[in-house]
Amino acid sequence: MAGGTAGKKGARKPYFRGNKGPARASRAGMPKAGGHGATPAGDGLVRLFGSHAVEAALGNPRRRAVRLLATENAERRLAEVIAAKGVAVDRATPGDLDHLLGADTVHQGLLLEAEPLPEPSLDELVRAAERSGPLVLLDHVTDPHNAGAVLRSAAAFGAAGLIVTRRHSPPLNGVLAKAASGALDLIPVLPVQNLARTMLDLKTLGFRLIGLEGTASAPLEDETFSGLSALVLGAEGKGLRELTRETCDRLVSITTAGPLASLNVSNAAAVALHWAALQRRRSI
């Protein structure tokens, strides 16, 4: 675990200096702000901020924490999990973190630099789906808030894992992790090069692929979610791409009753995953 120490040639400089009184930012040692924490921190590390995201990362034995910046209050709130992880803490002020992440970022006094999680294999996700709920596939969902909210719903309703396109998907850190409220360290996420090919692999393994499409005539409420299944969701506005739609076993829509008949992708995922959880419960 790396702390705020330096000395050897080539070692990382501390962000903050001083042993007494309020910590002061060492501006020369700070990484540049940008993307509200949505970019890697350098050296292949990722940035995670916000209480839930940081606490979940510290509590995840598969996540290697490198450096934690925390205000005094935030450090006190997470004292137990920080001690268990054994990560060194560099004391910061809210203004220091605003400087690093952007003034509009809701960091709650915490910024963790950590290594990316190891990617699961498709076999691992299949085994998880055999024990729990469906897989969730996102087709070019690029907004980190939406992707993070889908991940949070996946954790809430017992989904087995998330599959995303390696390109045209937000990075697995920063804003996405904050929106996921800790779910990034709870639900395995597999980026794939070719989503349609992965869908064909899943079909070969016995998965039923259910695509959510607002114009579909078949209702989601007719799906029983028995056996292995996967929900496939497209980007807001564009929906599922043509090849993705054609590869699904069935296209369904969510029945609505109000004057506004459409839902964004994260809300649609929550509704569909809740329905799938209810169906699984009834089948037990």
Helix-strand layout with pairing:
Blueprint: E1 16-17, E2 24-25, E3 46-49, H1 51-58, E4 65-70, H2 72-77, H3 79-85, E5 89-91, H4 94-101, E6 110-114, H5 122-131, E7 135-139, H6 144-156, E8 161-165, H7 174-180, E9 189-192, H8 195-204, E10 208-212, E11 229-234, H9 242-247, E12 250-252, H10 265-283
Parallel strand pairs: 4-5, 7-8, 7-11, 8-9, 10-11, 10-12
Antiparallel strand pairs: 1-2, 3-6, 4-6
Helix pairs in contact: 6-7, 6-10
Category from helices, strands and their pairing: alpha/beta
CA radius of gyration? 21 Å
Lateral arrangement of strands in the main beta sheet: 9-8-7-11-10-12
CATH class category of the largest domain: Alpha Beta
CATH-assigned fold name of the largest domain: Alpha/beta knot
Biggest beta sheet attributes: 6 strands, parallel
CATH superfamily placement of the largest domain: SPOUT methyltransferase, trefoil knot domain
> In percent, how much strand structure appears in the residues?
15-25%
Query: What is the helix content?
Result: 25-40%
Mean of residue pLDDT?
Answer: 86
The beta-strand count equals: 12
Number of helices: 10
Low-confidence stretches: 1-39
Shape: elongated
Count of all domains: 2
CATH architecture annotation name of the largest domain: 3-Layer(aba) Sandwich
Distance between the termini: 44 Å
What is the ordering of alpha helices and beta strands? EEEHEHHEHEHEHEHEHEEHEH
